[in-house]
Amino acid sequence: MTTQNSLLENLQINGLTHDGRGVGHFEGKTIFVNDAIPGDIVTAKITKYHDNFDDADCLELKTPSPERTQPFCSIYNQCGGCQLQHLSLDAQRYWKNQNFVTQLTQSVDAQQCQTVSPIVGEDKHYRRRARLSYVISKKDKIARLGFKAKASNEVVDIDDCPILTPALNQTIQDNKPALLSQASRAQKEVTLVEADKGIFGLPFTEESSAQVGTPYYTLNTPSDTPLKIEFPADGFIQINQSLNQQMIAQALDWLTLNEQHNVLDLFCGVGNFTLPIAQQVNSTVGIEGEQNLVNTATQNAQHNALNSVSFYKGDLFKEVTPKPWFKKQTYDRILLDPGRQGAFNLCKVLGKLKAHIIVYVSCNAATLIRDIKELEKQGYRLTKAGMIDMFAHTTHTEVIVQLTRTHKPLKKPKSKPTFKI
Length: 421
What we know:
The chain is α/β, with parallel strands linked by helices.
């Protein structure tokens, strides 16, 4: 290893951060290197100095990692949609899972925790929802339809994306001329989603005006009675249909439900988890912050003949203890599926509901871990954990944990937690 000013020659990369940067070490200091992956030997240039670590760019790839691959997308280096196509799929999943497990073991009491193998699926043509931008570029006056460039508001033009479903790609190709004819210097967006009965979200075409009804998708469930789940065309939907199905199955298994249970589903949306749960238990309550989603979830329960489900509008970031679904209530099981911000204030009081098991689904491991610490104070322990590779070739993950009530609040974190595999 040699160094000259801000250059690090022959830097060995032996790790990967949660945001996809390579990790190396020089004279006891950690170096985070853009565009480097584990196994690479690189020349790195320091771009920013810190007390305990430095940021760097990869200037030259001296020896490529055995896990380095050729990106399969022709615009991978321009588009900001994917970040890990240059790393083998197996290695992506290994490091995503490794980072998640490491974060848990270093932060919470994991001595009773069993990790499970990551839930995985197809790595191409899995995305059934896409948000596209269209604009006339101020630089060259050319109209473009596509995704945002890396670290930029510029639009990278696309005709086909290997991550999107074939039906979405065909819709983009068929409607691109009409969309570009509406482009201006003010950037606009269109959100397209593939439902069971076609593509929804087209703003200007004859097809969009002919598209009648509300989009829906079908869930296969352990009860052998498929569920029809309607959702707003412009609203949230799990973008990976296959892994959504597997994730729900994992959650149901970890909840260990029976027909006597009363279950609370928080951040329930249109009932993606609530309705499969309701097929197996005595009663289910779903809480969601947006009234239109509450209305849709209620209709979904009615259409699927699930009469033991109740949905309520509730701001889960404000005080909830006076609410009728919380005050003087107990539940056997609780499921949480918040957005990236997590459920910090809510987790401070969940112990009052005395649920034996909580299953928490998250797209942000950092806020999940923060919230687990609050649940530990109320007598819960982490008992199962797993990663779901919902967004292959990106740095994003979905994670799921099971917490079990022990009635003994955690007073002092263990110094050396260990995982049981």
